[in-house]
Amino acid sequence: MQFTMMKISSTAGNSTRGASALQALPHEGASTKDVIASIGPKVRQLRRQKNFSLQQLAERAGLSAAAIHKIERNGMVPTITTLMKLAAALNRSVAYFVDEEQAEPAVLIRCDERKPVFTSKERLDLAGISGPYGHFFMAGAVANVEPGADSGPKHMEHPGEELIFMLDGTMSFEVEGVEYMLRRGDALHFRTDRPHRWGNPAARPARAIWMALRST
What we know:
Layout: E1 10-12, E2 15-17, H1 32-49, H2 54-61, H3 65-72, H4 80-89, H5 94-98, E3 124-128, E4 138-145, E5 155-157, E6 161-168, E7 170-175, E8 178-183, E9 187-191, E10 196-199, E11 206-213
Helix pairs in contact: 1-3, 2-3
């Protein structure tokens, strides 16, 4: 699985090359596009952690709920003034939203310090549990997968490996034509250069540790 934001480079039959569920957190050398793309998910995650509705956050920040909704979904890039208001309302520094991680030999991520990982997939929230992907070959996240969420109608293919460990709920994975139904405590490890896709067919959310190793 690729962890940087990628455009679809080619398609063949029902397979999509270069697409993935997980995306990289901004890291040293990250593009401006990557940094901007990470702002919305960070706002959404903090709002949910604090149990604020869109309207409640809007009132605290002096902004409209519609504007915050657009920012969370990356439909609008906030101005520095807007970002300052959101940072104050969420009790964070502006740097939290635009900071690029520095290279370290070991990275500790506390439970309450997980940063959201940007993903283009709907109904999928990812909280990072790994260091900057630009300096490590492996990356991972705690995945919250809403009912009906999936990777899309086309299979994905890209270099690397993935390992999923189910914490709660049910998820289905199809790898090279074989379907695997994962439940709490189950794990699935597969090469991502094989056609694959995933989904949550159940009526309740699923939660999993989702790890990916890029090709070396």
